[in-house]
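Entry 12.
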Amino acid sequence: MISRDDELVAFIDGLAPRARLMGVDLGTKTIGLALSDVERRIATPLETIKRMKFTPDVGRIKDLVARYEVGGLVFGLPLNMDGTEGPRSQATRAFVRNMKPLLPLPILFWDERMSTMVVTRTLLDADASRAKRADAVDKMAAAYILQGALDRYERIAAAAEAAEDEAAFRSGLDMDTPKGGAVDEEI
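Predicted 3D structure (tokens):
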């Protein structure tokens, strides 16, 4: 079975250079959208779509995907607190399954547990009014989800680079050491 980290690396490494990612927080009444920069380091809240019906909802996502040259979608997967999938996860997977023929982009599911709560708490701490919170929470949750995936990818890449540097350093030591094990010192 492929690990979540391996799935993330394969997803991002398979994208075209400078293709953006779009984060999607699919709710029952709204769809929050976020966009990465072309270097895939920063997620920014983009838009909240008020859900109508499937076709216009996907149509709006398609329009934004084309406008911003998006190469892949990161969908928040609403897992239960114990990590299992419930009805909301199944609804998200069904939406993606139905959307795939209309928008054939690579898709990654990312654990979205606590994202709306964290964003709501942040907005409360910032003294945002109820109306402003309602307008911002879904697109900010999408940015939180997308940023989580981007940050995890960066940590994986940094760890891989450190391991390569360590291996290169160790192999460099082996090549410079004479067969007898001692290094000639010149004084």
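Annotation: The two ends are 57 Å apart (CA to CA). Residues 130-176 form the longest helix (47 residues).
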